[in-house]
Specification:
Layout (H helix, E strand, L loop, with lengths): L3 H29 L5 H10 L62 E8 L3 E7 L4 H12 L6 E2 L2 E5 L2 E6 L28 E4 L11 E6 L9 E7 L1 H9 L8 E2 L6 E8 L9 E5 L2 E5 L8 E2 L29 H13 L3
Antiparallel strand pairs: 1-2, 1-10, 2-8, 3-10, 4-5, 4-9, 5-7, 6-7, 6-8, 10-13, 11-12
Length: about 350
């Protein structure tokens, strides 16, 4: 018959095993929402696939103030480009498009884009004052019909992360336009209902993928806010209500979602702005005039793996908990998992 000491030790070992398993489950949940996944990393190593598209990680209500931060008129970069915006080559284009040629785009006001889905129509109000380079890229891609007949490949339905992600013609979460551009962040970004933001795979890796926030979400301030949805958010909520394909909280939408067309105002791609430059210690202001106001339409015709759902796992290092710190590690992991949806 076991002694009291033996029973206590057996109970202690059982508790430790339970705590370790709990930690492992929490780590697995975080892994599904990390920025760059193990599977995706293998693709990068094996085939040079360019990644920038997943959103997630340790998504907490408080923003990560260590993230790259810039003014609204220049991308975050350790080496500032000679022009306000820069779109260097990056990866293989999912569709044959040219990078933006307007490197000093309009940096005041807003411009609307009409996005027609197979399930309804949305209006995006793009914020040129907050993210001129991101807005210019979106307008340029729209003018080249890059978004036409492309899927919205990812839906998340967790209580802390409610987004629909689009902009990858491949539908795998790894596709882009063949160029990148810098972040436009203040560090105070909030991803409330209706926010439209750029997806990325790290600092200054923006491309074509973006996400629509259909419910207040907890994300670090690492994602450039492109603008907001002013009409049609109910269309996105209806998509979300039908859930994720195969169940779960992160993956392809259960209902196939396709961007049929994106319509933008004529001349909006050529609109330029005023930017201050410093020459020999003096500040100079260059100016240009925005052109065009009539609508310009991209062609229509209808057409997923999740960037983190089916296309990636986690990038954070995970280790097994020792018996001495199992209780603390499990508690921390459980808290993190609750906010990493």
């Amino acid at each position: 018959m076991p002694s009291n000491q033996q029973r206590r030790e057996a109970a202690k070992r059982k508790l430790q095993r339970q705590l370790v398993r709990r930690q492992q489950r929490a780590v697995a949940q975080r892994r599904r929402l990390m920025i760059v996944g193990v599977v995706a990393a293998v693709l990068v190593i094996a085939g040079g696939v360019w990644l920038f598209s997943s959103i997630g990680g340790n998504n907490t209500a408080s923003g990560d103030t260590s993230a790259s931060s810039t003014t609204s008129s220049a991308p975050a970069s350790s080496t500032a480009p000679a022009t306000p915006c820069s779109y260097p080559v990056g990866g293989t284009a999912a569709k044959d498009v040219d990078p933006p040629t307007n490197l000093s785009p309009a940096n005041t006001g807003t411009v609307n884009a009409t996005v027609t889905l197979n399930t309804g129509t949305l209006t995006f109000q793009l914020d040129r004052a907050n993210a001129p380079c991101a807005v210019e890229s979106f307008l340029s891609l729209a003018s080249q019909k890059y978004f036409d007949d492309t899927p919205c490949h990812r839906l998340t339905t967790a209580s802390t992360l409610k987004v629909l992600q689009c902009g990858d013609p491949t539908g795998k979460g790894t596709g882009g336009p063949g160029y990148t551009f810098g972040d436009e962040l203040t560090g105070n970004e909030k991803y409330t209902e209706g926010t439209l933001a750029m997806a990325n795979g790290g600092a200054d890796t923006n491309g074509s993928q973006f996400f629509i926030v259909y419910g207040d979400s907890q994300l670090q301030a690492n994602y450039t806010v492109l603008g907001k949805v002013t009409k049609g958010l109910d269309v996105v909520k209806a998509i979300a209500k039908k859930g994720v394909k195969g169940g779960g909280q992160d993956g392809a939408p259960a209902e196939k979602v396709t961007i049929k067309t994106v319509t933008i105002p004529s001349g909006s791609v050529k609109a330029t702005g005023d930017y201050q430059t410093t020459t020999g210690g003096a500040t100079e202001t260059g100016s240009a005039v925005a052109t065009g106001s009539a609508p310009d339409t991209g062609s229509a015709a209808p057409d997923t793996a999740s960037s983190t759902g089916a296309g990636s796992a986690g990038s954070s290092a995970d280790g097994s908990a020792s018996a001495s710190d199992a209780t603390t590690a499990a508690a921390q992991s459980t808290d993190s998992a609750a906010t990493s949806g």
